[in-house]
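User: Okay, second chain of the day. Same drill as before: sequence in, structure tokens out.
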Amino acid sequence: MLKNLYLIRHGETLFNQRNIIQGVINAPLVLDGVAQAIHTRKAYFESRNIHYDHVYCSPEGRCIQTTQLLTTLPYTTVIDLHEMCFGKLEGCPVFLAAPVSEFATYYANYGGETLAQVQERMNRALLEIMNKEENENVLVVAHSCANHAFMDYWAPDGKIPGPEALNYVAVLHFQFDTDTQTFALLDIFNDVYAGEDLEEAKATHQALILDPKY
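Assistant: Same drill. Structure tokens below.
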């Protein structure tokens, strides 16, 4: 049986704007982040008449906020979908981030995860999700490095280089084969956000700021 997985990066956050390394620590979506989620909902899901039956997301607040902007369906948080842990470099300026050539193991030197560890838990989480009998078209909201790690595992010849190449609220559309237990990358929606939907986003962003959960 073939199933569809729509794996999405969260919207832009305050730490993203301030160039702060953000893994398992969290910052809320900024106004642009809210608008980016609205844009992806309209330009990808609604314009293509794509529907999903189940929704999952990382437990980080920025992913929960993005999920709520994409859909009104109930969602389930899954711990293994969290962003790559950067150890002692969490919260530091991005100029301390790993050189591209050392990315796979760099953060383990600071108490963080390796790329292989991220791939292992992302595979574990998404295989469990996609093997649920009732899940046929699934929306999952997670993170840049985590999503890129999963894509690199299943589609190493993908056209997007580097761990930061997935734009905010980018969509990776995978097909999952329950017989072979494999994922195939079918499509990438990676729009460069250009300021659309800001007016619609303002009221929603204000509500998120006032929400004590975040």
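DSSP finds seven helices and six strands in the chain.

User: Thanks, on to the next one.
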